[in-house]
Amino acid sequence: MMEARRHVIIGAGPAGMAAAAMIRTQQPDDRITVISSEPYPPYFRPLLPLFLSGDRSIKDLIMQGPRGIKLIRSCNVATINRRSVILKPRGGKINYDRLLIATGSSPQMPLVAMRNIHGVECLRSIAQARAILNRAKDSKQAVLLGGGILNIKTAPALKQMGIDVTIIEREKAILPRLMPTDAAELISNGLHRAGINIITGQTVEKIHYNKSGIGIRKVTLSDGREISCQLLLIAIGNQPNMAWLEDTPINRLPEGVLIDDCGRTNQPNIFAAGDVACTTGPDGQVQTYGTWTAAIEMGHRAGKAMVGNGSSPHARYMATWNAADVAGVPFIAMGSRVASEKEVHTNRDRDGYRQVIFCDDRLVGATFIGRHHLQRAGVYGALIKQGIPVSPEIRAAILNQRLNSAHLTHRADGTHRADGR
């Protein structure tokens, strides 16, 4: 009988917990230790805006992890070697047979906001959410720098507190990495109807602090406009949490720890997944994902590989998926909008918005806005995830909005065929 392996996972986010669940499913007797820098059990970060609004409690955020894992909370890692994880601050160590790096990412902070000032916040943890709630009690106006999905979900929560909210986005429309400008316009309209201000094509050039230096009173935009605020939330992108790997031989790029499709690094028995990791595509371009769903899939792949089941072929595309209901406007954006030879089909009607993207006879991306268009989105997601060519019949069903689960059949090897036969 094979001796139980010792799996150590650094990070208790979606990638780390997905890997732990996969390992437990595949190898029930293996030992799993998860190291978390947080004092809380693993939780759903995407629900933090609902915690701000009072629609969810901390208990509602907690993830149900797999049985029989050892969770070490409030613990940071100093470094690793080929046998052990070295802990801070006292230098204790945990030995491993397989190691997963799943330390996630941290918010990028513009140079203008580098000062640690009360009122300049990011929403990435329960502790930060509590700090925002504390600051919101004394705030009448808030500026949200960055028009990505986190800030557009947070804006209505602050508005419910009676705060005047302004979103500032450098690009010409909100959600620039997620959907086309004309689609983002529908989300903007919903936010405007909810009383939220949006300014595009601008960024914050200066923060004006109170005379006491304790808080902020206003910001200056690129065009010189000044906006009063007592709370500034920043969400303009993330950077991988990998500085602690500096003295290790693990291959890293500026975008993250470089891994293969199964989460393997260049070092034996060491894997990575989630926001801290990156891959390279067939064209050699570095690929990062930065979504909760992609982190879960990366964790599942790494977990399989950690127990020795990572050699089977994987989908060509990661299941990047963003879904939300913002100010009464539901939407889903999945797959990729970046392709060298892409073919785009867009339909905007009274029910909302629909865009599908093909590349090399494959469905590689889709955006749906409105409840009618969100129906059967899972079937589109399956096609994108599998990354397989679609037949003329399936293509016609997609363009005519008739695609359904019956169009997906299974081969004997368990993979999908999108040929309708």
Give a description of the structure.
The protein has 421 residues and is of the alpha/beta class. The protein has three domains: 6-106 and 239-306, 3-Layer(bba) Sandwich (FAD/NAD(P)-binding domain); 109-236, FAD/NAD(P)-binding domain; 328-417, Enolase-like, domain 1, CATH 3.30.390. Helix content is 23%, strand content 30%. The chain is built from ten helices and 29 strands. It has helices spanning 14-26, 48-53, 58-61, 126-136, 149-160, 181-193, 292-306, 371-374, 377-386, 392-399; strands at 6-10, 31-35, 69-72, 77-80, 84-87, 93-95, 98-101, 105-107, 120-121, 141-145, 164-169, 197-200, 204-209, 216-221, 226-228, 231-234, 238-240, 252-253, 256-258, 270-272, 277-280, 286-287, 321-326, 329-335, 342-349, 352-359, 362-369, 409-410, 416-417. It has a five-stranded parallel beta sheet with strand order 3-2-1-7-20, with helices on one face. A five-stranded parallel beta sheet has the order 9-16-10-11-12, with helices on one face. The chain has a five-stranded antiparallel beta sheet with strand order 23-24-27-26-25. A hairpin with a 2-residue loop joins β23 and β24 (329-335). The radius of gyration is 23 Å and the shape is globular.
CATH homology group of the largest domain: FAD/NAD(P)-binding domain
Biggest sheet details? 5 strands, parallel
Shape: globular
Helix content: 10-25%
Quick recap:
The protein is of the alpha/beta class and 421 residues long.
